[in-house]
Design goal:
about 300 residues; alpha+beta; eight-stranded antiparallel β-barrel; 9 strands; elongated
Length: about 300
Amino acid sequence: MSRSPSHLAESAAPEDALAGLPAVPLTIEGAGVLHQMFRLRRPLWRALDPGERDAIAAEAAAALAEMEQNETGQSALFSLFGHKGDLMLVHFRHEFAGLKEAELRLSGLRLFDYLEPAHSFLSVVELGLYESTVKLYRTLAERGLEPHSETWDREVEQTLARQREAMRSRLYPEIPPTRYLCFYPMDRKRGELKNWYRESLAERQRMMHEHGLVGRRYAGAVKQIISGSIGFDDWEWGVDLFADDPLIFKQLIYEMRFDEVSAVYALFGAFYVGLRCPAAQLGGLLEGSLPVVRTE
């Protein structure tokens, strides 16, 4: 959603309790994520003999069917709405190199001679730990530990290890079998007048607490996966929203625009909305048939 990495409802922390402590909230990371958007070169595709089109589509469908059930992360295909592209492939892999493996395998298919890259986005599943960070930093400071000292760093890493184990299912999620996906990148403002990164940790925690309350009301209707892209791509986070009703995307994102985090500090990139296309239906999609997705 239009949220930064933390999804947890968190209580505000007094400013003075965090004065002089590190400003960076702790995060834990999991699966690598790659979004690939393509345009179909329709004139070239239509010029092919129907039998050859069928063979090319069948080859690609077989490869995608295997990737949909990959043991080290899944892939999924979506048919994009609008002019931004025709197809979007979403890959989740436990190992970052697995994303390149997926790219290379797909690029070797004959179908990819008829696809033109339109956009891509590289990131890693990320959970922000604002609440845990505040509690841990305060506890370590009360014990008289110096930030970034050997003991401090050891305590932090132990906390992160516990969180990684407890949150493993969220760090390495399965791609939800919903009909629709809404993907968009986002930043936090860091300009002259409004700069998220100059706000104190306590103030950011307060705003994120309020922000997270909105998302929790939609928990049963939409599945959200936040991925961090700082150092990987041109935006700071990627947001994937999965739902069976696309109107949920509009309702959720619109409501979030009114909270302080989004209204004051958020910047959004292009939105991509796609309809799920099971691998077995790729051939029909390329010939103009609407995919049928059963979510029961």
